[in-house]
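tl;dr need the bound structure. longer version: we got a ligand (magnesium ion) that a collaborator sent over and nobodys looked at where it sits. i said id run it. heres the input, straight from their email, havent touched it
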Amino acid sequence: MNERPCPGPRLVVCGTDTDVGKTVVSALLVQGLEARYWKPVQSGLEQGGDRDWLVNLLHLPPERWLPEAYAFQAPVSPHWAAEMENQEIDPERLSPPNQDQCPLVIETAGGLHVPLTRTWRQIDQLERWQLPVLLVARSGLGTLNHSLLSLEALNRRSIPVLGLILNGPIHPDNPRTLEELAGVPVLAQLPPLAPLNAQALAEQWRIQGLGPKFERILNEQDCPQ
Ligand SMILES: [Mg+2]
């Protein structure tokens, strides 16, 4: 295999809403791609952070995750959680590392229009990053509207989208409708897993053929500057 001339692939896991399963999907990807994990902005530490949850689920060694750039206690929008701690998020501190040969999975906070400050939203940050996005959406009722609105917003800013990952009970029509109306692939459908553990995620990675699928997708990505 040729040595990669550029850093390992970096991809961004976004959601159509809060609590749609971004962290579970991030865990699926971090394990499957043998990637590092970074959640640059975390609010809601008082309810337990996503990084701790993911690290425990996957038994991830310390070299496989990066510390948050910002972590706040209150389970509210990051801009407000920051203000409660007399802080303000500085977008300059949210640049992902790019010298690493290991793939990097970046989990965003909430949905695309979530404010990081009163003048800077999550989607502004994505536009600055110009990294490929995976959009996580619910599988069931409501997902068509949320997913199409999110994809329209990403398209308007020319943010590259790899595809959708649907989370929840397998739906008989939504994947097809989303692919037809949005013109992006549904890359995976993650059903509810009980128990939810590293082994169950590895099983989904295998049976959905995600290894070859992501190898193909990530090989098509241009090297970042
Ligand atoms: Mg999360």
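gonna send this back to them w/ a short note. Strands lie at 10-15, 36-38, 41-42, 70-71, 104-111, 115-117, 120-121, 133-138, 161-167, 186-190.
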